[in-house]
Amino acid sequence: MSEIRSEIIDTGIPKLKSARIVIDAPAAKIFEIIASPALHPKIDGSNSVKGFNWGPERLSLGAKFGMRMKLGIRYKITNVVVEFKENELIGWRHLGRWVWRYELKKLSANQTEVTESFDGRPSPFQWWLKAREAYPFTEKAAAKTLVRLKKHAENSN
Q1: What CATH number has the domain bearing residue 112?
Q2: pLDDT in tens, 44-91
Q3: Which candidate in 31, 38, 97, 148 could, as Cys together with 87 as Cys, close a disulfide (CB 3.0–4.6 Å)?
Q4: DSSP symbol at 57
């Protein structure tokens, strides 16, 4: 069996890092996983999302949710959903203003292309993103997250 890999996309925009993968599952099933913050630690490829702290079971536009994180140090962060289109698009941000975005494109009834992006353009904290080497880190983390999302979606009922 070959190793599952996602594709890192050259967006042509230095502050927008993306990866994509094809998942053998309906878009609605994949969207349910992404829209469930309690599942984020299971699919996170950055190894920084440690747990769901508070918020709704399912995300929607304007929903706020808290996560337990670890990136060098342990901390808690509050996110808000700023982009939402059922089974197609979901994106959230926190006080740093950068956006984590998932875009789902139905290829067939049981196959979906998923693109995950880290969009740093809205952030006024570019110095922080540069100091943390966030752009190269998040590009790889998104690619790893998509592989974990694919495994979860294809292997769960």
Answers
A1: 3.30.530.20
A2: 999 999 999 999 999 999 999 999 999 889 999 999 999 999 999 999
A3: 31
A4: S
